[in-house]
Design brief:
15% strand; two-stranded parallel sheet; two-stranded antiparallel ribbon; alpha/beta; 217 residues
């Protein structure tokens, strides 16, 4: 969440290959009072084209059951939070969306958008499927960055292991390395767990203020 908040444009990679080991269909929840206690919240998915399925093709196996599980787990983990009513205003629209859509990508994007809006993010959102791009990893990202008029690509530590700067240099686009916040307090487990823990523990206003300060650095 901190990385997205630091950007002014989020390119949703909706037409890349789905990866079960990624966070495209799941989130790791940290318990409200014991953040070291963690559990995966996963949307069971069906890949219509096997491992070659793209993210925008992946379907939720049982939307009704998944909806109940999401509701139950989030209430179990964060229902005692003093900020639950605020969190619920973000969670409820996602649960309602799951009654009309079985697309994993739709649910994942909507939940992220709602959290960003709650934190006061004012950036834009576009989809990679709307822009032509080359097939190579670095070439694709450079093409997308150019398509949205970016002068800087914000790269996480994971992506930095494979990113090649040549395609970005070709377009005159800088690469900025983003490191997820670490430490105690609101940043406890920030690299491994959902932002819901920080929101439920410290509230959206406090978290938004810290994110704004980081973005301004």
């Amino acid at each position: 969440m901190a990385k997205l908040y630091s950007a002014d444009c989020w390119v949703v990679l909706d037409d890349v290959q789905f990866a079960r080991r990624d966070f495209q269909h799941r989130a790791r929840l940290a318990a409200l009072e014991e953040p070291a206690q963690r559990q995966w919240l996963t949307l069971a998915t069906h890949l219509p084209h096997g491992r070659q399925s793209r993210i925008n093709e992946v379907l939720i196996v049982d939307p009704g059951l998944s909806r109940k599980r999401v509701d139950l787990l989030l209430r179990q983990y964060y229902g005692r939070s003093p900020y639950w009513s605020t969190l619920s205003s973000v969670i409820t629209p996602v649960l309602e969306l799951m009654t009309v859509s079985d697309r994993t990508a739709v649910i994942a994007e909507a939940s992220t958008r709602l959290l960003l809006e709650l934190l006061g993010w004012r950036g834009s959102v576009v989809h990679s499927s709307a822009h032509p791009a080359r097939a190579g990893r670095s070439q694709r990202l450079a093409d997308l960055a150019r398509a949205v008029g970016a002068d800087t690509y914000l790269c996480g530590t994971g992506g930095a292991r494979y990113l090649c700067s040549d395609p970005f240099d070709e377009y005159g686009i800088d690469i900025a390395l983003f490191r997820a916040p670490t430490g105690e307090g609101v940043w406890t487990g920030a690299r491994e767990t959902s932002a819901l823990w920080a929101l439920a523990t410290y509230g959206p206003q406090h978290l938004a203020g810290l994110l704004r300060d980081r973005s301004a650095d």
